[in-house]
Amino acid sequence: MRSSTTTFSTSSTAAGFQKARWLCMIASLVICVCAGFGYAWSVLQSPIVAAYGWPDSQVSLAYTITVLCSTMAPLLFASLIRRLKTRRCIMLGAVLFGGGLILTSMMGELWQLYLFYGILSGLGVGFIYPSMMAYVVRLFPDRSGMASGLGTAAYGSGAILWAPIAVSLTDAFSLSAAFRFLGVVFLVVVLAGSLFLREPPEGFQEAMGKKTAAGPAGDARDLNRGQMVRTAAFYQMVVVFTCGLVAGVIVISQASPILQQAYGFPAASAALFVSVFAACNMAGRFLWGSLSDKLGISNTTLVVFVLCILSMLVLAFVGNTAIAVCAMALAASCYGGFASVLTPLTAQVFGPRYITENYGVMYLVFGLASLIGPVMAVQFKNAAGGSYSGAFLTAAVLAVVGLVLSRFLKPKSRQGGTN
Fold it and tell me: What is the mean pLDDT of the chain?
């Protein structure tokens, strides 16, 4: 009798949470939009150089530091993140993220830019975004692709939303005022949003198990962080997604110089297309994430890889400007596609039980791709007298490698051994 009563109570609680989870999802998306501020860096770099007179190359290093800190935080602080749980982890991230920007408004030395913007705000994003991506998948185990797509789309909207706001604040007031205002906004909004986050009740995964797209509900075979990093599948996934993301990183990080130097675009027009590509990145996150629920994660990944390869080949061998712009937009969309399927695929391959800590480790692929893509693009351009064709062709080859390796990834239910 007690067992039946417990089962009924668990099912009832899970059913009630199905409606409440939408409020949690909305709060998560607002938090992700704030965390996406880093994508607006390109509009901050020149004003910082103009205001402080620091070399452009040294100022740009702040963005690299931010990317490294945000991607390394889930790995370095995995045990802390696991103990804090989602809400407290987001609160800590809000303090680091918002506080880092507020302190940046007071900087007077280059090292302070690195410390406040690069390290503190970067760590803040590292506590916020990976935790949110794992959380939304746990909210919607039955529609993990949609949830992941919405979360990554919200995060990717940073360049579209915050870039013009940062420019307007800088023009109307000052660069310091812009950092201070945005820091306060992010601190308050993310802290407020965290109050609406609720953990899925016990039995929720099991109750939604019949409709789960990310794989069966968590069980004893699921791998935690320590077990995951000792498997060949982990390193295979790291290579797969790093190879796939490089193409999109080249387009997103180098869009303006590519358009100006390779296709003769004026600076203003190139800046406009930077926003267009950012929109394609955001749309790709939602589109491919939602399609993965219908097509399956493996099939969606296959399609994204094929389109990514085609976009790079077009850019490498076709000189038509209109076609090249379309190919760049497609590559940006594919970058968003890889971002949207990474979370549910991690849950599928290693199990959903430890998705928060596992995705935090897997998030490293964005940092690796961000280190490889821009450097490769600049080196090929300098070696070829201004042509990016070598970089595009290399990115296509890397994507082929990623495509081939992705075909050997197996869901947890089909793996042997401890999986």
Answer: 85
